[in-house]
Amino acid sequence: MLIKDVVCPFCGCLCDDLDVEVEGDRIIRVDNACTLGSSTMVGDHRLKNPIRRNGTRWEDTTYDAAIEEAAQILLDADRPVLYGWSSTHGEAQSLGVHLAELIGGVIDSTTSVCHGPSILAIQEVGHPGCTLGQVKNRADLIIYWASNPIDAHPRHMSRYTTYATGFFVQDAQHDRKVIVVDTRRTQSADVADEFLKIKPGGDYAVLLALRAIVRGRADVVPAEVAGVSRVQLIRVAEMCKAAKFGAIFFGLGLTMTAGKNKNVRNAIELTDELNRHTKFIISPMRGHWNVYGSNEVFTWMTGYPYAIDFSRGIAFYNPGETTVIDILSRGECDACLVVASDPAAHFPRSCVEHLAKIPVIQIDPHPNATTHICRLQIPGSVAGIDAAGTAYRMDGVPIRMKSIINTGIPNDTEILQKLYNRVREARGE
Predict the structure, then answer these.
(1) Would strands 80-84 and 398-401 be described as parallel, antiparallel, or unpaired?
(2) Residue ranges of the alpha helices (H) in 126-186?
(3) What is the pTM of this model?
C-alpha cells in the first residue's frame, strides 16, 4: 500500500511530503526523503521487548515488570533527572512534565546542549522570525551562519531556500543569493554566492563589524576582522541591505562556541539593524525532529522552556544550575530517566561516568551508546512510523504525525502514563 504525505521523524525540517510503501507491518520503500530520513523510516534495528541488566548480562523482561522496576527506581531517588524528550511526540513530553512534578525531579531536554543559548538570547531581545513557508515564497537572500544544511538538514535547501521556487521567487537559483559563514569550507559553502571564512571564535567580532557597517560606520571597522577582510564585510552588508527579504539560519557553531548566547544576541541585533533597511528574519536550525516541541510543551505547562527543577515544590528555572550537564557534573543526580535521546554519545566524559554509577532507565526503541550504561531499556513505537503524535517544526509550526504501520508496540505516551500511574499509586495519591 502506498501512503502519501507522510511526515519524516528525523530532523527539525519535518518534511511532510514523503511517499511510503508499506507491506504488512514493514516499510519497504520511501520516496522524497533524504538519506537520513529514509534510513530512519526503513531501519529495522529496534529492540523487540524491554531488557534489564542482570549482572554483566542482559535479560528480556515484560513491559509491566519493566515499568514496575522503573517506578521503584524513581521512587527511591532523592534527585532524579528526566532527560531527552526531543525525539518523541508532544503528548509524551506533557506526561514527562507531570511525572517530574510528581517526584520532585528535574526535567531537561537536549536543548540544554544545543540551542539553549539561542533561547536565552531570545528571552533577552526577542525573535524576529517567520515560517519556512514565508522564507520559501519571499526570501531572495539566505545566510547560513555556522551551519551546514547539506549534511545536517539535507532537504532544507531544496524545500525552502537555495533550490526552492517560491511565489515571489520564480527562478530560485537565479533570483536567490546564498551566503555561508563558517570556520571551514563545507559542501554548503561550495554552492554559496559568497563564503565568509572566519577564524574559530570570531563570530561575535564579525557580527559586531557587520552591525557597524549596516549602521553606516564602516570607518571604525579594522582592515580585517577574525580573518575576514573589511572589503568583503562591506560587500556582504550591501547584499543584505539590497535584498527584498533576507533570512539568517544559524547552527550550533554559533551557540556552542565562545560567546554562546551573546553570539546569538548579536546576530538578532544585526537582524534588527537590517530591518531598518529591508525585511530580515533569523531562525535557529533545530536538529532533533521535536526539540522545538519540547520547548513549547514545557513552556505551556511550567512557564519555562527547559531545565525545570521541581525539587522546591514549584517550577524553578536557572540554566547553569538546573541544566542536566551541571547537575551531573556536580554529582547530584541519583537516578535518571532518559526518553528518546542518547546522552552517553554526546555528554562530556565526566557526566557519562556519573551516569554509569547511578540507575539509568532508557525509553527508546533502539540500542545505542546509553544502552551500555543503563539498567533498564523499554522500547516504544516511533511517532510518524508506528505511533501518532504532534510535533513542532523548527519554525514553530505544529504538525500531526500519522501512524502508518501497526507493530503492536506501545508508544511513549502509553509507557509514561503507566509509569506515572504506578508512581502515583505507590505514593498513595
Answers:
(1) unpaired
(2) 132-138, 149-152, 156-160, 172-175
(3) 0.93
